[in-house]
Amino acid sequence: MIHGETNKLLPLVASCVRLSHGKDSKGRCLQATADISAGTVLLSEPAFAAVVSTDCDTSRCHHCFVYRAVDDLIVCGNCGWIRFCSAECQSKANELYHWLECKHADLIRQAAEWDRTIVLVIRILLAAQPYELVKSRKSCEDKTQIPGCDSIGCFRGDYWSVYSLMTHEARQPELAPQYQKIVHQLAGALANDILHGRKHRDIHDTDTEVSECSMVLERFSLSDSSSGRDLVEKLFLHHLMQLRCNLHAITDITSKDESISGAKSETCGGVESQRQVRLAMAIFPTASLLNHSCDPNTIVSYEGRQITIRAMKAICEGEEISHCYGPHAKHMPTEERQALLRAQYFFDCDCPACRNNSTVDDVLPDAFKCRHCSELLKGLSSGKAYCTRCKTSFDMVTSLQELKQALHLYNISVDLMETGRHEEALKSCRKALKIRRRLLHVSSKTLGQTHDSTAEVYALLGNFAKAAWHCDASCKTVEAFYGSDSIELANELFKLSQLQFNARKAAEVLDTIHRALRLLCLYYGDNDDRVVELQQMRAFVVSQPPH
Predict the structure, then answer these.
(1) Is residue 521 pLDDT above 60, yes or no?
(2) Contacts of 468 (CB under 8 A, 6+ apart)
(3) In degrees, to the nearest 5, what angle opens at C-alpha 30 toward C-alphas 5 and 135?
(4) What is the pLDDT of residues 339-364, one digit of tens each?
(5) Which of 194, 301, 332, 472 is the most buried (most CB within 10 A)?
(6) 113-146: buried (b, 16+ CB within 10 Å) or exposed (e) per residue?
């Protein structure tokens, strides 16, 4: 639930947030109008339009994206392509967009194989009222109000809000000729249905505006059908350009035993090893108002077609509200982040993390420790490094060679795990871990990764006590690198809770559950699946008589 009273100018946003429109290249942004505490829900918005990702075609409902086994999904009897979890989802999809997709199934499916975002554009156009498509041509010429807002300055998250999102057209490469040809074919085939194939729904605009736009639509159908096709083609190209830099990937944290195909694979001895899965692509017009930061103050989560944005740290009055488009200061060096943002989103990032340079530039994955006092070594260049505490200098040539050997052993263990040779994998992983523990600092991501893999092998072999010990060591690395309030630590603590629960370590698991719940509730809310599972685990442990 969104925090506070209704925001009259941003209906899907908390009342402590306002829309600002600067004259600089960043344009619109959201700002705090009061101090905001961590965990506050700032925005909750349904997708204006969405399409399931190609990898999830046969394992997810194409409307609500819930997971189902292949045989439990309802396949459209006409096109044989789209799948649904229930008759209700099928009915909603047929009403909103699938009626047209079924009618032109062969053409649209061929285009989808070229680029799935083409299907998303079709659904964007179908989610709009036909008169809104005509209105978009003249609305963009109105410079008296903030783009995307109506006459009273309200950003409603409707089609005009979608249409107004940035395209960065001047920085984007031109669409390939084959791409333009596909769009031209689709516009010619679909224009009449998009403009005239639906009933009008409830509207916000005045009757006069609707009447004027309807007259234009009538002319398109009676005497100037080519103009209707041209309009749809121009809107198609406009939205394709927009989606390059405004597309949201709907993701979910799932267990590795839920394969993309919908089949079940091996679990870690009853302990879920998690991964992030990209379920769908969507457009969220209000959420798209948030500018990027490599060190954001919000976190995004998804439930079906709904996006929720929470404050992940305290936000001061007047501070801009930001979220991360992907490249994060904790995960990637500055130059690499900026190159990716420039290539995918067509802007040069000037966030505080980029201006000040990020800590990850100085803390490498292979962070060596001092052989005398175990302090982090700095200045690794030309094969030499020094200790910041005892000021000792080290020749790192031999250490680098040993680390290369450890990498080889680690890669062997990964290959052995994937082929089910767990005993051999454990031997190789332990050899790699022995070298890395001797050389690397507790904050080394490489060391943490090795502990995590060792924990996974032990869990596969049913030794949950040793698995928990190594997972706990991985948690210490994650906390040292990302911080005690990080998302990364929350995910690792969830895994540790499962291992300690299976190892029947009652005292330890209650403490871990407490730490994990504090972070997961803060960032994902009380209804998150992991929160529910941890609460059930805690209730079971508490209910058991003491030994």
Answers:
(1) yes
(2) 455, 496, 499, 500, 503, 505, 508
(3) 90
(4) 888 888 888 888 888 888 754 544 45
(5) 194
(6) eeebbbbbbbbbbbbbbbbbbbbbeebeeeeeeb
How far apart are alpha carbons 71 and 248 in whole angstroms?
A: 29
How far is C-alpha 135 from the geometric centre of its chain's CA atoms?
A: 32
- 402 Cα distance to chain centroid: 37
Q: 287 and 43 in contact (C-beta within 8 Å)?
A: yes
The strand pairing partners of 321, in sequence order, are 30
What average pLDDT does this structure show over 244-248?
90
The torsion angles phi and psi of 74, rounded to 5 degrees, stand at -90, 120
Element (DSSP H or E) covering residue 239: helix 225-246
Average pLDDT, the chain: 85
> Strands (DSSP E) along 324-431, which ranges?
377-381, 384-387, 393-395
**Nearest-angstrom CA–CA distance, 130 and 211:** 12
The H-assigned helical ranges of 52-145 are: 87-93, 99-103, 105-114, 117-127, 130-139
Average pLDDT over residues 228-244: 90
Beta strands in 443-541 (DSSP E): none
> Percentage helix, strand, coil, to 5, in the chain?
50, 15, 35
Distance (Å, whole) CA 370 – CA 396: 11
Q: Is the pLDDT of residue 201 over 50?
A: no
pLDDT at 348: 86
Distance of CA 387 to the CA centre of its chain: 39
Asked if 392 and 369 count as a contact pair (C-beta separation under 8 A), the reply is no
Check whether 310 has a pLDDT greater than 90.
yes
Please state, in angstroms and rounded to a whole number, the distance separating the CA atoms of residues 315 and 18: 14
Residue 532 vs residues 93, 273, 513, 517, 525: alpha-carbon distances, Å: 30, 17, 11, 9, 10
| Model confidence at 236: pLDDT above 70 | yes
Q: Can you tell me whether residue 255 is helix, strand or coil? A: strand
**Which phi and psi (to 5°) does residue 254 adopt?**
-125, 165
Encoding tokens for residue 148?
A: 């995307």
Nearest Cα residue to 447 out of 374, 516, 519, 514 = 374
Nearest to 424 by CA among 409, 438, 437: 409
Cα separation, 249 vs 439, whole angstroms: 39
Does 145 have pLDDT greater than 80?
Answer: no
Q: Which of the 8 DSSP states describes residue 98?
A: I
The pLDDT confidence band at residue 205, using thresholds 50, 70 and 90, is: very low
